[in-house]
Write a structure and sequence with these properties.
By secondary structure, the protein is an alpha+beta fold. The protein is built from eight helices and 17 strands. The strands form six sheets. Strands 1, 4, 5, 6, 7 and 8 form a six-stranded antiparallel β-sheet that branches. The radius of gyration is 27 Å and the shape is elongated. Bound molecules: zinc ion (2 copies). One zinc ion is lined by residues 182-184, 186, 210, 213.
Length: 423
């Protein structure tokens, strides 16, 4: 954390504060950026559009501060004026829009509970101010946390993020904190020491549930946790050793369809012969509610069950890809490597890729086409599968997206309270 020798933040509660008048502001010239130097001549550049931290009023420059205690704002406009006297001096100010902290929000919405927000959370406000360039600290990133975003970017525990906009006049946050979170209505509190939430990515759900609420409701999927053994690593890519056994339960909870998907049989000749997709053991669909109720047996063909549940089609894919696709989608403090946002994006991408490669179809589609043509199903993952799943410059590694929860030796497979899918 750089410590700049700034003057105090020029804010209304600062005794040294003298607000810039409209006339002074209007006389100033517009700039796209400005630079500020610290005591040891490090230069910091601030541009229009940047999100920045600002030294709070009453804090002496150089005070040891954690980053989350700074004020945060977005630079809307920069203006400055040069005074020519015996010494040339410049005065630079910026018009900023404040990102409110949870504590700031309680000054607007008294009923708001700030304990549900972590120190790095901010609300986008409609409150603007002119701030002297002397109070600026550094440029930071502000990430968006969106509950139903399947492409949610990774947010580390030490990055600023936002999920609500603050409407000061209307005294409300948008979206409302209790909106669509869990069955209990309590919003995600990342920093709560025991938080773990599971996500159902089905298009009709896209909702997070507290693990404790799922346990209380007895929403357990009636199977043991996915048994995953990593391959020895000696096998060639795309040909993992026989030890790589993964439960397909979670993998088959699709982000793109609410229908039931099933894996081709382990005995499917590869890659040639056409085969019929068995309709035995299909998941039961309740037409009244449109809910799909899946039981474990439904997800594997008889031949696979006889072999102890090995999903043969998956053995032809890179074991790391299958491992990732089969993870529960989880976020919360106890899943430490998931940061604030959890593993939703990599797991969703991995599932989509596996479904695409195996050309998994729903029962409805299968009944229409009557015959499942495995010839056309690609059985090899593309060479760049890891890049496609993790991104070109991943902020987390693939193994960090594999869920390990502090204090839990195995992670239960839950049934989504809404659709019954494995989550
Ligand atoms: Zn809950
Ligand atoms: Zn669901």
């Amino acid at each position: 954390m750089p410590k700049r020798g700034t003057k105090k933040g020029k804010t209304a509660e600062d005794p040294e504060y003298r607000p810039l008048t409209d006339a002074e502001w209007n006389r100033m010239l517009k700039y796209g950026a400005f630079r500020v130097s610290d005591d040891v001549k490090n230069e910091y550049r601030f541009s229009r559009g940047d999100t920045v931290t600002i030294l709070p009023h009453g804090i002496a420059p150089g005070t040891d501060m954690v980053q989350s205690d700074y004020w945060v704002a977005e630079i809307l406009e920069i203006r400055g004026i040069t005074y020519k006297g015996p010494e040339i001096s410049t005065d630079v100010w910026a018009n900023v829009r404040w990102w409110y902290s949870a504590k700031d929000v309680t000054g607007v919405i008294q009923s708001f509970d700030p304990t549900k927000c972590s120190p790095y959370e901010r609300m986008h406000s409609d409150h603007t101010d002119r701030v002297s360039s002397q109070a600026f600290n550094e440029v930071v990133k502000m990430k968006k946390l969106c509950d139903d975003d399947l492409e949610q970017p990774y947010i580390s525990p030490n990055e600023f993020y936002s999920r609500y906009d603050l409407n000061r006049r209307g005294k409300r946050l948008e979206p409302t904190p209790a909106g669509s979170s869990c069955t209990c209505g309590a919003p995600y509190a990342y920093h709560d020491s025991d938080t773990v939430m599971h996500f159902c990515p089905r298009p009709s759900c896209r909702r997070w549930y507290h693990q404790t609420c799922l346990l209380d409701a007895g929403s357990l999927f009636d199977v043991p946790a996915p048994k995953v053994q990593k391959s020895s690593g000696k096998s060639k890519r795309g040909r993992p050793s026989k030890a790589a056994t993964v439960s397909p339960l979670l993998l088959l909870t699709s982000p793109d369809t609410s229908a039931t998907l099933r894996l081709p049989s382990a005995r499917t000749p590869c890659p040639a012969k056409r085969r019929r997709m068995s309709t035995r053991g299909s998941a039961s669909v309740s037409p009244q509610k449109g809910k799909v109720i899946v039981t474990p047996e439904d997800l594997l063909e008889d031949s696979d069950r006889e072999e102890g549940g090995s999903a043969g089609a998956l053995d032809r894919l890179p074991s790391k890809l299958v491992l990732l696709a089969s993870q529960p989608i989880v976020r919360g403090t106890l899943f430490t490597t998931g940061g604030v946002s959890g593993n939703v994006r990599p797991v969703v991408r991995a599932r989509r890729l596996v479904h695409e490669i195996l050309e998994l179809r729903s029962d409805e589609e299968d009944n229409m086409s009557a015959e499942y043509n495995n010839d056309s199903a690609g059985v090899e993952a593309p060479d760049d599968w890891e890049e496609r799943v993790m991104g070109l410059q991943p902020e987390v590694q693939l193994n960090e997206c594999v869920v390990k929860i502090q204090g839990q030796r195995s992670i239960p497979v839950f049934a989504c309270p809404e659709c019954g899918s494995a989550i």
